[in-house]
Amino acid sequence: MMDDQVRRQLAENWRAVEIEVAGAAEACGRCPSEITIVGVTKYVDADRTWALVDAGCTHLGESRPQSLWQKAESSGMQVDVTWHLIGHLQTNKVRRLVGHHPIIHSVDSQRLLQCIADESAARELVTRVLLEINISGDEAKTGFAPEEAEALLEQLPESGIELLGLMAMAGWGTDRDEARRQFEATRELRDQWSQQYQLNLPELSMGMSGDFLEAIAAGATMVRIGSRLFEGVEPGDGS
């Protein structure tokens, strides 16, 4: 069981991140309500996850589909949340995952996209997805090269998915200026493809705890923040 001090720390961390995100938005002439903070809870157990929800975070991100559905199916949920799958997804995990209605940020192959579409359509669902773009070109990173993603846009599945936009991470070891340039390049791709293919692509999932300020300045609509929210908090039992 958590003590009240942990709950207070989580609430303070959440409020501090909210304030910083709002300030970053206003500094570049944007409305804070345009930006969704996805609290990345892969670091903590279910109790701390629900405490973060109690503090006001209703968008939760997990890297592993097993962790997402275990937490979603646990008995601690008091309010509705939107789940986000932000890590690599194997096709054999799709069937169970889509039943929890997540937003899947990490679609990195045509095969995976088609699998999500097929499983969702078979269950009369529409799963919201983003295409992961390897904007830095790092060989160690997953995601589509821009030209691969563009080719996919010409043959999207006709049912079962709703393409919301793009997700990107800055390359390993990049400084803040380079991270912003990479995020701006992702936004430019989104804008170009929206016009070229007449697609509504409202979302840009860019930025994490170390670079979300640059991502917001570049146009991010979703920022994935984990470690900042759990500063001073032990992870718990890992469940």
What this model shows, in words?
The protein has 239 residues and is α/β, with parallel strands linked by helices. It has helices at 4-27, 46-55, 65-72, 94-98, 110-122, 146-153, 176-196, 212-218, and strands at 36-40, 59-62, 82-85, 103-107, 127-133, 161-168, 203-206, 222-225. The protein has a single domain (4-230), classed as TIM Barrel. It has an eight-stranded parallel sheet. The longest helix has 24 residues, at 4-27. It is globular.
What do we call the CATH homologous superfamily? Alanine racemase
Helix content: 40-55%
The total beta strand count reads 8
What is the name of the CATH topology? TIM Barrel
Q: On the 0-100 scale, what is the average pLDDT?
A: 93
Shape: globular
Rg from Cα: 18 Å
Give a quick account of the main beta sheet: strands, pairing sense, barrel closure: 8 strands, parallel
List keywords for this structure.
239 residues; alpha/beta; TIM Barrel; eight-stranded parallel sheet; 8 helices
